[in-house]
Design a protein that fits this description.
Elements (H helix, E strand, L loop, with lengths): L12 E6 L2 E6 L4 H7 L6 E2 L6 E2 L12 E4 L2 E5 L10 E4 L9
Parallel strand pairs: 1-7
Antiparallel strand pairs: 1-2, 3-4, 5-6, 5-7
């Protein structure tokens, strides 16, 4: 469903990990865009029903792209650009305070 624009296909790439697995993203991508491009449709599960949720608005309004980035939870993946060595974890259910 999501594909790269052909005129940007030669952009430099960065490597990050998502739930412990390495993926390659284009420099300048947001975390949410990198997840979608790598085939990760969901980046969190809701706190009440554990329903999978994925990026929806991609502009910081809906909060469906919440992930943990480098140990900091509840980050909006659509507002954070990827960088080399970044560690991203999908959020499962309710987040525990202090983690």
């Amino acid at each position: 469903m999501f594909r790269r624009l052909p005129d940007l296909a030669d952009a430099p790439s960065v490597t990050l990990t998502v739930d412990g697995a390495a993926i390659t993203a284009r420099a300048g991508d947001t975390v949410a865009a990198a997840l979608l491009a790598a085939g990760h449709a969901a980046c969190r599960e809701t706190a009440v029903s554990n329903t999978p949720r994925g990026p929806y608005c991609l502009m910081g309004v809906c909060f469906d792209c919440l992930v943990s980035i480098d140990g900091v939870g509840n980050r909006q993946g659509c507002l954070v650009r990827v960088c080399e060595g970044m560690r991203v974890e999908t959020q499962r259910g309710k987040r525990v305070a202090g983690r």
